[in-house]
Design goal:
single chain, globular, 11 strands, disordered N terminus, D-Maltodextrin-Binding Protein, domain 2, 2 domains
Length: 342
C-alpha cells in the first residue's frame, strides 16, 4: 500500500509539473527583406515576384518583405541599418558598401543584368561631341550611384570637370521620374540613366541617344545590376539565399526563352509600381540595350571601382578581394546542368 501511495504521489507531482509547464512556442517565421528598383535592369526581381517564383522557392515558413528604391546608395544605407537582407543593385553602390564596411557588410552572390544604361541629350542642347558638354546641366539618378559614377568618369576621360572640381559641367543627382520631367521642361541638357528611363527620355521626351554605355566596354558586356546579400543574413540563412538563387536562375532562363511574355509582364509590374505602363517603343528599346544574366561580369567591377576612385567617391583604390561569394550560385548552376562561374 505504501509503495502504491508513493507511486500515485509521484504521478500527481509529474502531472502537476506537466500541467504547469508553459506550452512550447513554435519558432517565429523567418523574414527576408528584399530591395529592388522598378527598372527593366532589375527584371528578375520584377518577374520573380510577379510570378511567385521567389515565394514558392522560399517556402511557407518565410515571410517576404519587399521595398522599392530609386537608386543604390539608399539601399546600402538601409543594409547598413539592418533593414535589408538581399538586394538587386548596381556595382558602384555595392563597391562603396563593401569598402565602407571594410569588407564586412555584404557579398555579391549573382549577376542580374549586363548593359541597359545610356546617356541621352536634349535635342536643343547643341551636344554633338563630348567637348559640347562644357557648361551643360546633366542629371544622374543619385549621387554616387552607378550611372552617376559613369557620367563623371566619362567627363574626366574627355578632359571636363564638374562644377565641384572647378569646371563648368553641372551634374544634378535627381530621382529618375524627376529627370524625365526636367528633361521635358528643358531644364537639363542630358542625363545618364538606366533603362527604361533612357528609352523614356528618347521616346517620351524627344531626346537623342548620345551614348549607349555598351560602346565603352569590351564586347559591350558590363555589369549594370547584380544581387548582393547582407553577410549577417548569408551566414545565418545560406539555405534561403540558395533558394532565392535557384528562383533567380530559373526566372532568368525563362525570360531569355520567352522575351515577348517577359516584356509584357514586366510592363504590368512597372505600371503597378510607377502608376504608368511603358509605351511599346520604350519597352522594345529598353530590352534591346540589356541582357539578363546570372553572371556578375566580375571583370567589369574593378573598372567601376577605378572610376569611383577617380571621381572622388573612394579615398583610395579599393581591395575587392572577397566581395564575391559565388559558391551558392555555382551549386545551383551545377544542379541545373549549367557551367559554373570562375
Amino acid at each position: 500500500m505504501l509503495k502504491r501511495r508513493m507511486c500515485v504521489c509521484l504521478l500527481l507531482v509529474v502531472g502537476c509539473i506537466a500541467g504547469c509547464r508553459s506550452p512550447v512556442e513554435a519558432p517565429a517565421a523567418t523574414v527576408m527583406r528584399v530591395a529592388y528598383f522598378p527598372n527593366i535592369t532589375h527584371s528578375q526581381a520584377l518577374l520573380g515576384l510577379a510570378r511567385g517564383d521567389f515565394v514558392e522557392a522560399l517556402g511557407p515558413d518565410v515571410t517576404l518583405e519587399t521595398t522599392v528604391f530609386n537608386a543604390g546608395p539608399s539601399v546600402i544605407e538601409a543594409l547598413f541599418a539592418g533593414q535589408i537582407d538581399l538586394a538587386y543593385i548596381g556595382p558602384n553602390p555595392a563597391i562603396n558598401g563593401y569598402v565602407q564596411s571594410r569588407g564586412e557588410a555584404l557579398r555579391i552572390v549573382a549577376g542580374a543584368t549586363s548593359g541597359g544604361a545610356a546617356f541621352v541629350v536634349h535635342p536643343e542642347s547643341g551636344i554633338v561631341f563630348p567637348a559640347d558638354l562644357a557648361g551643360k546641366r546633366l542629371a544622374s539618378p543619385q549621387l554616387g550611384n552607378t550611372q552617376d559614377v559613369a557620367l563623371r568618369s566619362f567627363l574626366l576621360a574627355n578632359g571636363l570637370d564638374t562644377v565641384e572640381q572647378g569646371g563648368t559641367v553641372e551634374v544634378i543627382p535627381t530621382p529618375n521620374p524627376q529627370i524625365l520631367d526636367l528633361f521635358r521642361q528643358g531644364q537639363i541638357d542630358g542625363a545618364w540613366v538606366p533603362e527604361p528611363w533612357a528609352s523614356r527620355l528618347i521616346v517620351e521626351g524627344g531626346g537623342v541617344l548620345f551614348l549607349d554605355e555598351r560602346a565603352l566596354w569590351p564586347e559591350g558586356d558590363f555589369v549594370t545590376a547584380h544581387v548582393i546579400v547582407s553577410t549577417t543574413f548569408l551566414d545565418a540563412h545560406p539555405e534561403l539565399v540558395r533558394a532565392w538563387l535557384e528562383a533567380h536562375v530559373a526566372v532568368t532562363r525563362w525570360e531569355l526563352a520567352n522575351p515577348d511574355e517577359a516584356r509584357r509582364l514586366l510592363n504590368v509590374e512597372i505600371a503597378a509600381l510607377t502608376g504608368k505602363a511603358l509605351p511599346d517603343e520604350v519597352l522594345a528599346q529598353s530590352w534591346g540595350r540589356m541582357r539578363p544574366t546570372w553572371d556578375p561580369v566580375a571583370s567589369s567591377l574593378l573598372t567601376c571601382a577605378d572610376a569611383a576612385y577617380a571621381a572622388g567617391f573612394l579615398k583610395e583604390r579599393p581591395n575587392l578581394d572577397g566581395i564575391y561569394d559565388l559558391s551558392l550560385l555555382n551549386g545551383v548552376l551545377t544542379a541545373q546542368g549549367l557551367p559554373a562561374l570562375p
